[in-house]
Amino acid sequence: MSVITEIEDLRRLYARRVPKMFFDYCESGSWSEQTFRENSSDFDKLYLRQRVAIDMAGRSTATHMIGQDVAMPVALAPVGLTGMQHYDGEIKAARAAASFGVPFTLSTMSICSIEDVAENTNVPFWMQVYTLKDDDFMQRLFDRAKDANCSAAIITVDLQLLGQRHKDLKNGLSAPPKLTVKNIANMMTKVHWGLGMLRTKRRFFGNIVGHAKGVQDASSLGSWTAEAFDQSLNWDRIRQFRKMWDGPLIIKGIMDPRDALEACNVGADAIIVSNHGGRQLDGALSSIRALPAILDAVGDKIEVHLDSGIRSGQDVLKAMAMGAMGTHIGRAYVYGLGAKGEAGVTDALNIIHKELDMSMALCGHTNIQAVDRDILMIPKEFNDAWA
User: Please, how many CA atoms are within 13 Å of residue 3, restricted to the half-sphere of its CB?
Assistant: First the structure.
């Protein structure tokens, strides 16, 4: 095996080890994938300002996200089907995050359940929920998260309906996945992955099957998923969800300053500037381009994080310099998970941390909390007003 020095090394290994339908699920966007691409490429338009002859000793990337101590301003974002990227994937990712000292977020559409992760980890994690119609299911989901000692909840607000994701449709990637002859043939070539899946009992949507009314198997899961998401969602509905959860609350999926202000009004503790990794509205701005206007709108009213497009420690540094107080990574850690399991997630975190620490130092800073826009050279058109 070649030496792992960058996230791209993990991505290449991941592509070889995981079935195509699950690789494509991770490594794709909606429609033409313009937003998916620009989420990452727009970071390249921000240049770093190098400084010299400044004491670089005694550096610290430690900070806080919603009042919680973190080893660096990075959380593992909620990713559905993580337990299909590697057996017991959510448990393994949560353990790696806990050992490193960063938050892990469990998706509602996870394979391992809330209880599975809680029983196999010793550090509180965050729970992500969708805006579903079923009040009974939603209340019990929040209650289960509270019973599992989850330290924050994330409400995803940008999935009232599913974006057109061509690769997923062609691969039969749905809830549950369609096992076509082509898919099964491809899975049979992924021996390491297959042996792992044979060893685990966790192969289904653990937060839903047996918990949502009438969902006891694969056939009933499909019909429930088709009806569950609330296309009539509004901010009053989000206020109802806020009453169901009295702990720290983060709202994910904010891309417009007006929505950021609405999130402030419903009692959220933080928002995540995110376009769902480019998997919802294609042609939307990248998250890093959307960030400045949102920061200008909310000021210090609420903590602002950034998600979508981060593949390196330099991306984290640039987001923090632009004004974010935290970042969230999805694909970057999934590459590691699919490539090497828990050790691969640790590799991804170590890579990002090393890049963040070194780049911060070369920009003349020793504390991530002191980094600001002074380290960036931002092209004039990057934040231009749009007609």
Answer: 1
